[in-house]
User: What shape does this take?
Amino acid sequence: MVTFPNPDPRDVDNRDDVGDIWQAARAAGVKPGTIRVWVHRQKIEPFLADDGGPEVFHIPTIIRAAQVRPGRPRVAA
Assistant: This one.
């Protein structure tokens, strides 16, 4: 189970809320490698692009995940 799940893709109206790993990392103030670690540890999950292209991320969810400091929460706040 992912700690910080994405909203339903049908509920994401603003395309500015979705970005690639570099945009997500920049918005959260972390390195892209940190995003990859979070995905591997199931803290976050990527959105899949509509056309089967590269992974994209819900930026507000990434920012919420980045605000959690130390330890590992069992569920999102």
Notes: The chain has a mean pLDDT of 85. The chain has three helices and three strands. The longest strand covers residues 55-58. The radius of gyration is 12 Å.
